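Hi there, hope your week has been kind to you so far. No rush at all, and the record is pasted right below.
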Amino acid sequence: MPAITADTLTLPRLPELPETATAWRPVGKVVRAQKFLEGEGFQVRRPFPGVDLALADPFLLLDHMGAVEYGPGEAKGAPWHPHRGFETVTYMIDGAMRHTDSIGGGGLITDGATQWMTAGSGILHNEVPPQDLVAKGGLFHGVQLWVNLPRSLKMAQPTYQDIAASDATLLSSDDGGALVRVIAGEVAGHTGPGSTATPITYLHATVAPGARLALPWAPDFNAMVYVLSGRGTVGAERRPLEEGTLAVFGPGDALTLRAADTQPGSPTGWEVLVLGGRPINEPVARYGPFVMNTRQEILQAFEDYQAGRLGQIPVAHRGSTDEII
């Protein structure tokens, strides 16, 4: 797992939180991700939305892609498609994904980098594996998170930001047993590089076997932990959590996690995403790639897409089978 790493003994440390005087968040629910096919037919594991967790305001969707070892010709992507009304955050842990959009943005997202796209009023984009990965095969592992936008920003101008692996803010747990990569938001006064239209915190932590990670957490944010690989426990009650499962926490101002003493298939430790945000508390109307506040706005999004008002595929990237909108 080549997401950026470092010697935890050289990094700033999170504060030590007292066991008895801290309002630890309890675990309210554990959800197992369901498997779906997306794009041209690649598999994702999705803890939400689903039957067990329909909405995690301000988050809309979490897709765990891989980890999978593709053979030659097997890698697939999500060709040109529209979005309106929210943000997509694509974090590549292993392998690479090439992004192109209708406003001239794009690039290669690889090995610990994050691509943050604010669709806003509307954009077309293309997410496909690079040609060398398609031709030769290889390891592919990433996560895509959808973050809702408040009504006041849903029709904002589309933008995107590229966050290199080296841009992430690196922290250590209080005892040096865990490496925390802050992609966006703030933890104990340390801020990640992602610029968030909706207030969120997004972390990737590697917790060494048997080690504990304690995180102060904004009381007005919700809190979730998703396991990328390995196993451990969450909450003061030590609820078990393994690969492909998500824990949703109740109220409080701190989180506690502990990696199992052994990590089969995960030599670096327990790999987890920790995310939370301030709920928007607005009506949500969603259909496919559009997330608005009302059904009428969804119908308008489809009309605008068909009329070409969400952008057009750049000529340089238009294939013979692409629809000219």
